[in-house]
Amino acid sequence: MERVEDRVNVPTHNPIMSCPRRAALSASTIALLSGCSVLSSDDETADSRLANIGIANGEGAAHTVAIRLDWEGERILDRTYDIPPDRPDQDRQPGVAVERVWPDEPAQFTISGKLNDEEWITLNPADRDYPDCYTAEGTIRSASVIRWFTGTSPSFCKNAQSDYENWARWNESRTE
Asked: What are the sequence ranges of the domains in the chain?
């Protein structure tokens, strides 16, 4: 498994985070609630598929976010992202969709994140009884808080690769 470790400057806008704020809030609430009843089977080797990891900045100041992904006991991602401040004159929050360095298959994993120099917060699908599909979205709400939302709807995994590819194409067009 490849290990990714470096620092990334994030462009001001990201199409994954580009819905108008009210629509994004409504969509994320519906998506979050829609997977609440989806749980994996009771096998002894419980695993989940990871759809996406994303962070949005709802603050008026830039922030640095560190993300780690441990996959089957091995750290495969250890990266920091500089996310620009939110601008009230625009209907989109700056953010990042974490690059997909993990296989598209069920596994045991944990996602850890921290804002600036605060403590690490770890998300683990085991806390949700290993759903078939798992996604993590964080929103920066103050200088020291990332609010994490996790979703378990199978639709997140169904569209995960195309969602990320759309973001990657958009990101490439911003740097040309």
From this structure: 7-175
